Target: Amino acid transporter transmembrane domain-containing protein
Amino acid sequence: MADISMATNATAAAKNQESQYDHSVDVTPPLQDGSKSFDDDGRLKRTGTVWTATAHIITAVIGSGVLSLAWAIAQLGWIGGPAVLFVFALVIYYTSCLLADCYRSGDQVTGKRNYTYMDAVSTNLGGSKVKLCGLIQYINLFGVGIGYTIAASISMMAVERSNCFHASHNDNPCHTSSTPYMIIFGVLQIIFSQIPDIDQITWLSKVAAVMSFTYSGIGMGLGIAKVAENGKFKGSLTGISIGAVSQAQKIWRRSQAFGNIAFAYSYSMLLIEIQDTLKAPPSEAKIMKKASLISVSTTTIFYMLCGCMGYAAFGDMAPGNLLTGFGFYNPYWLVDIANVAIVIHLVGGYQVYCQPLFAFIEKCAATKWPKSDFINKNFEVPIPGCRPYNINLFRVVWRTMFVVLTTIISMLLPFFNDVIGIIGAFAFWPLTVYFPVEMYISQKKIPKWGTKWLCLQTLSVICLVISIAAAAGSVAGVVADLKVYHPFKSNY
Model:
């Protein structure tokens, strides 16, 4: 899942809102003729390479979604699980190549640049599809805020329970509620949300990126150790057996697994922004396709190891969050480190995703009510030993309300796998498949009903069906969980 760099897309989209919907506005800086310090669009010379692009993609994709892969493979089995991971990798790579060709309009060397995902949609498709793309994008950001709150509370509970088990020598069931931890996480986000702009949380993003590799690596290592301790690979060829779940539950869970895998893989929303950092020649599209191949291959190997080792360790009992498996409480201190790393990562990840949404709403409000002091006026608050802090009343109220809303929804629906399945299903088809396919068809002027057009549309329809099935499975999971869940009480 794109956890870090995706914010670049949404931030730029918010800042360039006028250029996306009003084609008469030109935000391109003046061209600096004859200067070796500037690119063909007048901006400072880009310095990105295939390796920097690969690093951006891997850092963004490997996030909390990796923790659900063992559970997803447990629903699909040793045949279906790795096969679905591999197929998703192929689809992601292929549509990424289509999207890479949409960075420039027309000629891949001299054509006009599209700086953001929404710019590309505006240039190639235009009309209502630009607004639809923005709507899907920002709803997805809101959903990620909910998913991250749930994931953080689960990890905080895991730390408490592992220490409780250790202190009681496993005699105490150590039941606890996620509600207090969601409130703690929400309070932290209210504080961090007052950082005015995404540009000022670079340090938080870097810390979050390091933490994602930390907990993913620990999870993979513990899976390998658990398999060695068991002396065998658990699991079956077809996944969780009937009896452990009903036939209907097995079908819904398999559908939900597709959403979990989609959540873990998607990075299309940030691809154009990463491509905009690349220096040429060769063409940015050529470099980006190579970077996509390297990063998707690397990520797939990493996901295979994490997901398969988790399934091999736990079999049908693979937990929704790999690190919360009971067998991993020894060595409990190592699991605690991993869970603390998750919480730190999610604190930063929440801001990386939500800051662009904050900026978008605040820009819209300032445009609609330009004379409102409540919305536009900043007040300086002196801080001893530091620069004065500028407080904007609208920012304080709106961002606090947003965090409170995501926290309350998380308390009512604290189901990690179900929620990320819904998010993954909601964003996968439109942002990873539909828009890239439609933009590519429009740009390359592929004739309707031709062989290539039919193949592309078939791919889009198949992915749409998969997304609908994944969403249905995740919603069914939420409904089933709500039957036994008691809000604001101890459920774990």
